[in-house]
Amino acid sequence: MRNSFSHTFSLFIRNTLLTKKAGAVLLIFLAAYTLGTGIGFFLDHTPFHKNAEAVETSAEGNWGLSFQEEGQPPVANATFEELAQYDAFYAQDTNEKILYLTFDCGYENGNTPQILDALKKHGAPATFFVVGTYIESNPELIKRMISEGHTVGNHTWHHPDMAQISAMEIFQKELTDVEDAYKEVTGEEMTKFYRPPQGKYSESNLKNAQQLGYQTFFWSLAYVDWYENDQPTKEEAFDKLIGRIHPGAIVLLHNTSRTNAEILDELLGKWEEMGYQIRALAELSAQASAK
């Protein structure tokens, strides 16, 4: 590669230096070569899987998934076994057609009541991972979630990048402030289920959560449903949520999604037709604790 380039470059210099525009042409040649080389490197080093979406990974830890086989769990940043040592999960390792439904709640825009209506109609339990301000702003919805058999989990107070927090006292406060708000509204202790905001995590985060008595829950199925003003169509949602469902899935949806509110009744029915049972995340937690 280097010898070929050197020879080409030498001929180019010899044949173009006699022209007034040699300098400009030389710059164009170098830019084109550099761009072509860069593109070639990118294409050669970017992983691609059939039916896969981009998987983000970094030293800080951005939860990522690669879907490779329909009806099977995606390949994730960590294996079941690697997460288990920290009481963490992204799905259940099973061939049984069960799934666990979770919602991340950063704020309320009017879609949660319809979501709760659909869950109630199907007798489907869910876990709502809420930030602290959601509890303060929507105490009646929190009470309704509890009264209808759902679980409220901890999504931190400020929704920060927890991978950037190294001090245990700061990490702990993000969780305990939510616990305090929950207890003030419900009079009960909060279930110690934790979901890292944006799926950003580190090994020390997982250890911290474990030391505080929490189990950490990532997910094995989600789709881009969080842009309030750019909602997916029903067809786009079903393509992901039906096409990629698998035994033991932990499904992540957002309560702010208008599409989710509109399709959830039909979606739950379709999953049921496929033979899936929706179970409470507490069952997965209990089974893991019993091992």
From TrEMBL:
Gene3D superfamilies the record matches: Glycoside hydrolase/deacetylase
GO-annotated cellular components: membrane
Domain called NodB homology: residue spans: 97-279
GO molecular function: hydrolase activity, acting on carbon-nitrogen (but not peptide) bonds
GO biological process terms, semicolon-separated: carbohydrate metabolic process
Key words, A-Z: Membrane, Transmembrane, Transmembrane helix
Transmembrane segments: 21-43
InterPro entries the record matches: Glyco_hydro/deAcase_b/a-brl, NODB_dom, Polysacc_deacetylase_ArnD, Spore_PdaA
Record's protein name: Polysaccharide deacetylase family protein
